[in-house]
Design a protein that fits this description.
single chain, alpha/beta, Rossmann fold, six-stranded mixed sheet, 12 helices, about 15% strand
Length: about 325
């Protein structure tokens, strides 16, 4: 679907709202998943917006999905915060995390109501636990440095702060961002969650500012690239001078693009004993959780069905 061009559909249509949706693996993966899950004769269409696009553009997209009977829902990346800010009044229901975080990653319809959900705290948590050793935080005393303060950063830090994890939480969390308003917003959300883990918020206008945080992290700590750099825009939030923590973890939330952060981490993996993860498993969990919500189907988070879906995605990636 061309940017901002909305026409009534002739079959059930699921939308992907992003920046460069045509380049995503989901365009090849979704038809195969739809067959496997018996979703029927449906289609996936991308809607591309510029980062921080005009409010009217987001409202037009949400209004169309709400009014078109064959538009069944959407997954949102990049625009999670801006889209909800522009169209909050169009939703009949928002879940707890959507209200807390001021963002949505899924639009669905239930009994005539338009529903917005922030599902990233669940999907990012599932992705993290898929590769993180059991009891990691309690055993190592490691910290977490999240570069970026957008929706994905808010989601993973909200998961890490959850009191349900008991003592198995990071010893400290640092979040950096190039602009101050998002830092103030994520700090507000963290305060509302009300956990006692030490936190720091860094206005990092230059990659060198992020380098300084990485360089002081204790061993075993995790560094996360939760920015669009490496996918929606080229580059990395770090310079090549930054030294990742010894025996730590580097997690690149992106899985496509130039992935400069991933390259930097892999270059140090042997010398620093670094575990390096890209965003592929996050991609799988993020999409399957939203599909389960939009299509109202049961998709397990482990076991044969989930493994089959993962294999299908890897095959057509």
């Amino acid at each position: 679907m061309a940017e901002r061009s909305f026409r009534q559909t002739n079959k059930p249509t699921f939308y992907f709202i992003g920046v460069t949706t045509g380049q995503s693996s989901i365009m090849r993966v979704f038809p195969e998943w739809a067959k496997y899950l018996h979703l029927g004769d449906c289609t996936l269409q991308g809607i591309d917006f510029r980062r921080h696009d005009a409010h009217e553009s987001y409202r037009r997209a949400v209004s169309f999905i709400k009014q078109d009977p064959l538009s069944i829902g959407a997954l949102i990346t990049t625009h999670k915060i801006d889209l909800l800010a522009a169209s909050r009044d169009l939703f009949d229901e928002l879940d707890y995390y959507a209200q807390l975080m001021g963002e949505i990653s899924a639009i669905s319809k239930r009994e005539g109501k338009l529903v917005g959900r922030a599902m990233d705290p669940v999907s990012s948590g599932l992705a993290l636990e898929a590769f993180l050793p059991k009891g990691y935080w309690r055993r190592t005393g490691a910290e977490v440095f999240v570069i970026g303060a957008g929706g994905s950063a808010t989601a993973i830090t909200s998961y890490l702060l959850d009191a349900a994890h008991g003592q198995n939480r990071p010893a400290g969390i640092t979040v950096s961002n190039r602009s101050t308003p998002r830092l103030l917003e994520i700090e507000r959300i963290h305060k509302e969650i009300g956990q006692d883990i030490p936190r720091e918020y860094v206005n990092a206008r230059r990659p060198e500012d992020n380098d300084a945080v990485v360089d002081r992290l204790p061993d075993h700590s995790m560094v996360i690239n939760a920015t669009g750099l490496g996918k929606d825009a080229p580059g990395s939030p770090l310079t090549d001078v930054a030294l990742f923590p010894r025996n730590g973890i580097a997690w690149e939330f992106n899985y496509r693009g130039d992935l400069e952060f991933l390259r930097q981490a892999r270059a140090q993996s042997k010398e620093r004993g670094l575990t390096v993860e890209d965003g592929w498993i996050y991609f799988i969990y993020g999409w399957t959780r939203v599909l389960a919500e939009v299509f109202a189907v049961d998709i397990p988070t482990e076991g044969k069905v989930f493994e089959d879906l993962s294999r299908i995605a890897a095959r057509v990636r």
